[in-house]
Amino acid sequence: MLLKIFPLIFLFASVIISQEHSLITNIEAHKxxxxxxxxxxIIDPYENGYYNYRYEPADNGYFKNQKPENKWDLIEYDFDKxxxxxxxxxxxxxKEKLLLYEGTIWYKKDFDxxxxxxxxxxxxxxxxxxxxxxxxxxxxxxxxxGVKLGEHEGxxxxxxxxxxxxxxxxxxxxxxxxxxxxSREFVPTLNTDWYNYGGLTRxxxxxxxxxxxxxxxxxxxxxxxxxxxxxxxxxxxxxxNQEIKIKIPEIQSxxxxxxxxxxxxxxxxxxxxxxxxxxxxxxxxxxxxxETDTVKExxxxxxxxVNGPDILLNGKKIFLKGxxxxxxxxxxxxxxxxxxxxxxxxxxxxxLNGNFIRLAHYPxxxxxxxxxxxxxxxxxSEIPVYWTILWKNEKTFLxxxxxxxxxxxxxxxxxxxxxxxxxxxxxxxDERLSFLKKLNEQARFLDSTRLITAALENxxxxxxxIIIDDPFGEYLDVIGLNEYLGWYDGxxxxxxxxxxxxxxxxxxxxxxxxxxxxxxxxxxxxxxWTEEYQANVYExxxxxxxxxxxxxxxxxxxxxxFRSPRRNLPGIQDHWNRKGLISNLGIKKKAFYILxxxxxxxxxx
Length: 605
Ligand code: GCB
Known about the structure:
It is a single chain. The protein has 605 residues and is an alpha/beta fold. It has nine helices and 33 strands. α4 (339-351) crosses α5 (366-375), α6 runs parallel beside α7 and α8 (531-545) packs parallel to α9 (590-601). The radius of gyration is 25 Å and the shape is globular. The relative contact order is 0.10. It binds (2S,3S,4S,5R)-3,4,5-trihydroxy-6-oxo-oxane-2-carboxylic acid. (2S,3S,4S,5R)-3,4,5-trihydroxy-6-oxo-oxane-2-carboxylic acid (GCB) binds next to loops.
């Protein structure tokens, strides 16, 4: 009976997904034209370019890019005389005056299609053009040639708008109003422990596709199988019924099928694939051909499952030797956004003898996820449902759900991603539980092949016993737990006295522990902020790890020091969270070597 219902559920799932997003995935498989580089900008703290003096949206805002036409015209801005900012890039670390700026900045980029894409006009109407943003923090309103294309909320996921009918051969101007003001109802909310880097923080591209093109697809091993590949494909455009071929040339495998009136099809076929693992991160070229479009990408195939308290990769028990990381550029500072940044971060994970990274506390850029596929590093990816979200606010929920959807949409074909996390350290309440349960359902609905987790908190049963009993644990595959014994909770020797219990027969990952140390600051092992204190905490924590029930992995907090405006201690913090194992200048602290050693000897619980 179950088997009979399954295909129906699957079909239904694919239809709903298609209605929910307009994102083109794997844009590199299409023709892209980078709009990265220098963009002019106007700082607009009062949003004068958006609202009139009655605080109503103006129909003649900065997005019109007006110029005086005669000597008496009154126009109080001028993009062309304004300074420039580099895209991709946060604005905070590019101009000193913007270091702590939270508000609106208008960006403008001019482009000539005749230069970027000389044959475009000749090819229309068989071609379409989109503008694609890797991420904009936090809110973006996008205009082309004075006409609004759309808006996007959420600072860490991609989005795109079609510009086929608006774009001109010459003299296009793309304007983006970017606003990074924090707000109680946003995701994240007002209060976090990371820097609110604003701007066009990831790549901006024009993407050219055929009039009917392959917009999205899901290609993974079928749940529980090593040999059956299944998923769905989604076309967009004027020719919905098409014959589709999926090919994996290296193993001469694939299948042919036809999309329905909505442009969708499920598929499944048998394939003798070599399974992806950190030891051998095998990726296959997968080609998808429709009658009007072809896309290609490298995909790895592996099974990730839980069995009682264990996590299994391709049927075998694994231990996740990890580290948490923010999306900060090693050495350079500011938001990471290049392939080199991603490489440096993952090289550090390898140097630690690790095989796992927790990309905290929001979806990181696509470079790192793709590189992790190649380098064989497991990923935990999460959305910024962090601390005190407004659980009762429907808009907040829809926003969180949308960010989750966009994260999964972008990265669902990456073998490296094994865990989707829906929240971090959220305080217990009925409203929170129902909010998180719905996110959990959405994640499972979009992707039944990965494990769902969340970073939960400690609860004491008595002085020396902590229990993992968060009611949300019942719904998760893997329990993440943040604990700060030895730092926020007692001194390092307290760690030895604590015992853990868990209510759930499920794998546990200690998703955070740590202590701050200013690199180069030395003292005895009980002096706060010294490398010795941090090392002391790591030594005791590592002993504790051996005693945590059901432990399947850990991601201590954190790989490198990161900027955080809530860290105010002069001479030590100066707006940096110092829990990094590596300083913001790339220098390793003592604790780095302690974890490195542990990871070199520890195999499995
Ligand atoms: C936490 C948070 C993390 C903070 C960290 C800290 O529990 O999850 O975002 O940065 O503690 O350093 O306090």
